[in-house]
């Protein structure tokens, strides 16, 4: 490894399920550093069961970051190499570790990537949606206006959107996405990527929401959801949009967004799903 006056912080990708996906370089790095920094050190122990390791293991999570990061920077400044890992995939992406990486940069400590598996790119690769531009949303807020606001943003985003979700909330997420994006918006739900029971289910949000609501046995494991981007408005839609907004604003004074969208669709001839999305946006501003 290249020598620096200080140590190097290696950000190491680890398998998201299948242990065979751990790269030789990742194993070599983890076996040679002075310490491995992990959210759960027990996970590292299982991953490296057959790999000689000379360094110690240090836990780093949301509860101890403030106390641990200064000590880790001292070790790095003293010339020790450290490796940062997450429980699965690439560290600092919807996982602890981002603050340590930022602090290392701030202290002038070299940070090096040791790439590995990622649920985000793995899901995109099997989704079959445009991925030249995409947005990663991670876990959405669980309730309230913060969640509704993010759903409205996803509904109008022309890029493919990638989300994470827990087993107990996957059915609710799909219901909310259907309400925000429309029943016919295409999506892919990936479950247990790279593991024995991996499933990749693609279809309209209407079908996906109905399927997972009716199949409790599939509400297990780790989920990554890809939502197709919103269709771009056709030229000439500007005046129609202004007309629809005026109708919706009048209806929203008396009706819920869903009822307002239904009535506005009869008046304007525009798709009810698109009008519901717009009604949610207008209602959120009031």
TrEMBL record:
GO terms for molecular function: methyltransferase activity. Pfam families: RsmI_C, TP_methylase. Residues 241-282 form the RsmI HTH domain. It catalyses: cytidine(1402) in 16S rRNA + S-adenosyl-L-methionine = 2'-O-methylcytidine(1402) in 16S rRNA + S-adenosyl-L-homocysteine + H(+). Its EC number is 2.1.1.198. The keyword NADP does not apply. It is an enzyme of class 2 (transferase). Keywords: Cytoplasm, Methyltransferase, rRNA processing, S-adenosyl-L-methionine, Transferase. It is found in: Cytoplasm. InterPro entries: 4pyrrol_Mease, 4pyrrol_Methylase_sf, 4pyrrole_Mease_sub1, 4pyrrole_Mease_sub2, rRNA_ssu_MeTfrase_I, RsmI_HTH, SAM_MeTrfase_RsmI_CS. Its main location: cytoplasm. This is Ribosomal RNA small subunit methyltransferase I. The lineage of its organism: Bacteria, Pseudomonadati, Pseudomonadota, Gammaproteobacteria, Thiohalorhabdales. The gene is rsmI.
């Amino acid at each position: 490894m290249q020598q620096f006056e200080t140590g190097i912080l290696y950000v190491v990708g680890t398998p998201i399920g299948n242990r065979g996906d751990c790269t030789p370089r990742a194993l070599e790095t983890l076996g040679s550093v002075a310490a491995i920094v992990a959210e759960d050190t027990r996970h590292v122990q299982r991953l490296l069961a057959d790999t000689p390791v000379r360094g110690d293991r240090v836990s780093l999570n949301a509860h101890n970051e403030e106390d641990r990061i200064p000590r880790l920077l001292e070790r790095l400044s003293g010339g020790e190499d450290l490796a940062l890992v997450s429980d699965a995939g690439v560290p600092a992406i919807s996982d602890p570790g981002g603050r340590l990486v930022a602090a290392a940069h701030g202290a002038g400590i070299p940070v090096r990537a040791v790439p590995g598996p990622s649920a985000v790119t793995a899901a995109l690769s099997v989704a079959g949606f445009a991925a030249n531009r995409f947005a990663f949303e991670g876990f959405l807020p669980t309730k309230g206006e913060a969640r509704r606001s993010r759903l409205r943003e996803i509904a109008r985003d022309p890029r493919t959107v990638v989300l994470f979700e827990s087993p107990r909330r996957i059915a609710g997420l799909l219901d909310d996405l259907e309400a925000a994006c429309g029943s016919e918006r295409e999506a892919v739900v990936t479950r247990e990527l790279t593991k024995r029971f991996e499933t990749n289910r693609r279809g309209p949000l209407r079908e996906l929401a109905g399927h997972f609501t009716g199949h409790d046995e599939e509400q297990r494991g780790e989920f990554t959801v890809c939502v197709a981007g919103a269709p771009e408005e056709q030229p000439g839609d500007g005046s129609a949009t202004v007309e629809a907004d005026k109708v919706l604003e009048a209806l929203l004074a008396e009706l819920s967004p869903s009822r307002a969208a239904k009535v506005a669709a009869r008046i304007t001839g525009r798709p009810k799903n698109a009008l519901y999305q717009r009604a949610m946006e207008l209602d959120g501003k009031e």
